């Protein structure tokens, strides 16, 4: 990615992204060539259409929704946590770990690769730093986790790349030592230093706590459209018990975690019908959440590349980026690191799942252990810098 030349916003160019069946969106139209611009006529308020459940059944949305998060087989004391634990699932997990070994068990191996390299840490938020809970507004990270992240950031450049809005994830994490990317990487704040060479049309200057910072917002033209769709989705799902819609500025999420499974086809169809009126938006699936985002060629993988470049690390060979995440959207980042063996993806999962990651961690508690191990290793190696 050449960030040094002035470029228009990243419009959809990847033919795979135009594959309607993969996106599960009927009627997806190609973008215009010149970037994600739209006129106010495109923003016309969509009308609620009659429910035709065949749409969401035939396009695979429902299957994807059912597969989107591990089932709860056995509840523990903390009933809000997703837990899967019985003998057969443990056996399946152990054999899955042959392909995705534990990052804790492989710590020495990872460190030997990092010997002459600078480690850069990328972290997802939900399911990685905070456990998955029923209420997205209560997805807090523990004090121990916050300390571990703060210590990691003292020693290694560290960024959080979340599907939430940048403001929201900053509010939840509360650490100034990190770099933050919200809306699946469509809203990146990066420091003024080290980024002088970046001349990109989607970069604007801003101030944050009286410091001059840069903002990279490749989907900024979609802001009114996302806001409108958010309001429409709130209105069109308000009668579905348990449905929750979140506005993440450059994308919006429709949660169905607390919706009875019998109503999943209804919520899916409502989202589908709204999207039918917005051909320049697409749908991706997260953990019991339908995520609506602009059809631009940008994802968490691109955000990793952008952050490395903006931190002045893009052309360094002695670099070991490590990305820890749990969700499908993190796969784009795992893929970028796997390609050309640039670094390591670590998938956080209690159940076996196919991934582009190299290693695995079982849950947020293991993520914390891994971060603490990184800090310990660094402090033993270089005690003067503590
Ligand atoms: O990229 P992330 O930081 O992992 O954000 C992805 C989504 O995370 C949140 O939803 C998920 O976590 C919730 C709290 O544990 C849970 O209730 C929900 O079912 C999960 O999908 C967030 O609320 C979403 O908007 C993000 O897109």
Describe the fold and architecture.
The protein has 386 residues and is α/β, with parallel strands linked by helices. It has twelve helices and 13 strands. Helix 11 links the parallel strand 11 and strand 12. The site of the ligand O=P(O)(O)OC[C@H]1O[C@H](O[C@H]2O[C@H](CO)[C@@H](O)[C@H](O)[C@H]2O)[C@H](O)[C@@H](O)[C@@H]1O has 23 residues, from strand 8 and strand 10.
CA-CA gap between termini: 35 Å
- The count of DSSP E runs of length 2 or more, i.e. the number of strands, is 13
Q: Segments where pLDDT lies below 50 for 5+ residues? A: 1-8, 11-49, 72-81
User: Which structural class fits the helix and strand makeup?
Assistant: alpha/beta
Q: What value does the Rg take, in angstroms?
A: 21 Å
Largest beta sheet: what is the strand line-up?
5-6-4-3-2-1-11-12-13
Largest sheet: number of strands, sense, barrel closure: 9 strands, mixed
**How much helical structure, as a percent, in the residues?**
25-40%
| Large-scale geometry | globular
Bound molecules: the ligand O=P(O)(O)OC[C@H]1O[C@H](O[C@H]2O[C@H](CO)[C@@H](O)[C@H](O)[C@H]2O)[C@H](O)[C@@H](O)[C@@H]1O
How much is the average pLDDT? Answer: 83
> Number of DSSP helices?
12
* SSE sequence, one letter per element: HHHHHEHEHEEEEHEEHEEHEHEEH
Strand content: 15-25%
Enzyme class: hydrolase
Keywords: Hydrolase, Stress response
Family: Belongs to the trehalose phosphatase family.
Protein name: Trehalose 6-phosphate phosphatase
